[in-house]
Amino acid sequence: MALQNDESFSVLLDSQAHILNHAYSFVRSMSLKCAIELEIPDIINRHGAPMSLSELVDALPINKERSQYVYRLMRILVHAGFFVIQSLPTTKGVDGEEREGYSLTPSSRLLLKDEALNITPLFLVFLDPIMMDPWQNMSKWLRNDNDVNPFQTTHGKMAYELAVEDPKLYQSINEGMASDGRLVASVILQHCKGIFEGLASVVDIGGGTGTFAKYIAEAFPNLSYINFDLPQVVKGLEGSKNLSFVGGDMFETIPKTQAVLFKWVLHNWNDEECVEILKRCKEAISTKENGGKVIIIEMVLKDEESGNKTLETQLFFDMFELTLAKGRQRSEKDWAKLFHDACFSGYKIYPVLGIRSVIEVYP
Ligand SMILES: C[S@@+](CC[C@H](N)C(=O)[O-])C[C@H]1O[C@@H](n2cnc3c(N)ncnc32)[C@H](O)[C@@H]1O
Ligand SMILES: O=c1cc(-c2ccc(O)cc2)oc2c(O)c(O)ccc12
Question: Domain O-methyltransferase C-terminal spans what residues (predicted)?
Fold first, then answer.
């Protein structure tokens, strides 16, 4: 790179900053993890007013000799939008006293223990070292020819094989999925309940331990809801009047139903596997009354250029799929091809879930 004028210096230095920013992108997530482990959002929330640094330090379960570092942790988290600095009540404004304190933002509220829709468990599972280590092995995996994904290169087995052998990991994955299920069900029930209206039966395939299922079944008492997952996942789980847990393999049988639902399942599988699964769904719903459909809760990749935060988050999840599973995130064109190849006649996308959408697919 020839450095001839001010403009090329500026490009050089911007490029260096860009690279270093990427080298340390993980600082945001790791700092947030630290704040969650120290229960900072809960402590500030319990305080009930902007909390000064000294009040926060006093309340934290840390070695008090390290108090000076809390300011730096909070500074990056304020910068990242998890806390804001607000003026303290005027009585604190005398000389020598702190005039400002930390308050929560909508994002940190979603991390509070007593927030019904808290997604801390999902955040923590993403940052579990078992999930983080495979990122170190992406290039190793791309060079070799014997592992399905970097997770297998790292741990010697597939993600869900490891999960069933490690009860602590299994529990954190279930808690993560459950927290997502609560949030997604709550948004759907408030903003697009119509998706389930008029349905007599739904089979939620790969429904996990059924948190999403419980919310929907409770909201629609006349809907017969089956939460279908691998036998070892649903073993011992108790249903209710209109919710049952059924064990099975979606590549072998799918119970007959009016509608089939997939939430965060198809992104784990490649296109051939998705077409195979969707064809089975078509058979499962085709003998039923009118109104049969497949409901898919997944990302639809946005097509804007880089710089858009939703697209960036979606692309992060696409790389997550590459690292952990065999699937990917799909654009509308990708989804349309899958539906066509599985012989469905049409679809409609409802972009009502932030980074995800609800897709209805019609036989
Ligand atoms: C990412 S989790 C999604 C769980 C749930 N739908 C949610 O969003 O919280 C994927 C689920 O697919 C299930 N699964 C994997 N292979 C399956 C199969 N062959 N048949 C049925 N379920 C399967 C897993 O056990 C797991 O519960
Ligand atoms: O949040 C997760 C976590 C997993 C996961 C992590 C570690 C394992 O050994 C198995 C599974 O898988 C997920 C997944 O497949 C998904 O579609 C969304 C979230 C997660």
Answer: 135-345
